[in-house]
Amino acid sequence: MSKTNDKSLGSGYLRRRDFLGASLGACAMTPFGRVSLLQLATSLSGSLTKEERDGMTPSQIIDELKKGNERFRSGKMTARDYLAEKRASASGQYPAAVILGCVDSRVPAEIVFDTGIGDTFVGRVAGNIVNDDQLGSMEFACGVSGAKVVLVLGHTSCGAVKGAIDDVVLGNLTRLLARIKPAIVETKFDGEKSSKNAAYVDAVARTNVVLGLSEIRRRSTILKDLEKKGTIKITGAMYELSTGVVEFVA
Ligand SMILES: [Zn+2]
Predict the structure, then answer these.
(1) Which of 8, 61, 74, 230 is the most buried (most CB within 10 A)?
(2) 120-133, pLDDT tens digit by residue?
(3) Ligand 1 centroid to 171 CA: how many Å?
(4) 149 Cβ neighbours under 8 A, 6+ residues apart
(5) How far, in Å, is the centroid of ligand 1 from the Cα of 8?
(6) Which residues fall within 8 angstroms of residue 239, CB to CB, at 6 or more apart?
(7) CA 218 – ligand 1 centroid, Å
């Protein structure tokens, strides 16, 4: 797919495609045409460069994440050379997004979005709660390093959300779960409101994502201002454990 054949994707298409994902096999089939040797070398190394990242808008980055999730759930993930990505990114990183996800072992952001080494910052904490340290990490990612998307990623069957619903008291976890409780109060739900009701748990998790976005805007002037200027987008999504689908919810 050449740049001339697909004008709708813009002149940076090949490079963006390389960033979040086309397989090396797919690259080999590409009629490189006007692509320079430098671009080709970059595409084969697999890590996002500053020029590539800066050439994308926040919306384009979100689109690339969606495409990456589509590759993941359809079993067509990028064939990565992690050693090449490691070499390409060792001297500098230019991630396009910062993702706040849950510690749940079944929701590894880099895998469900099919991104490589150096493509995304990822912060993980039970219940993908927004706290001061996660906020500071997001401010570094966007305000210092130049990432353009803040994504809060919740998921179905979240144990932390169940724990908050059940009022679990356990060491330091108690205080963490307290940060999820506003989502319980805010969730409008007809039906059994218990941790045994999967639909209710997922509804609370979804509210927790939406409230997390509000928290980011309320507690970080830096991120709020970057969003107002259009430099970044702040968005939220839910990952469905059984299907692998990421649904953007806000
Ligand atoms: Zn979870």
Answers:
(1) 61
(2) 999 999 999 999 99
(3) 18
(4) 58, 61, 62, 65, 96, 97, 98, 232, 233, 234, 235
(5) 38
(6) 107, 112, 153, 154, 155, 156, 245, 246
(7) 23
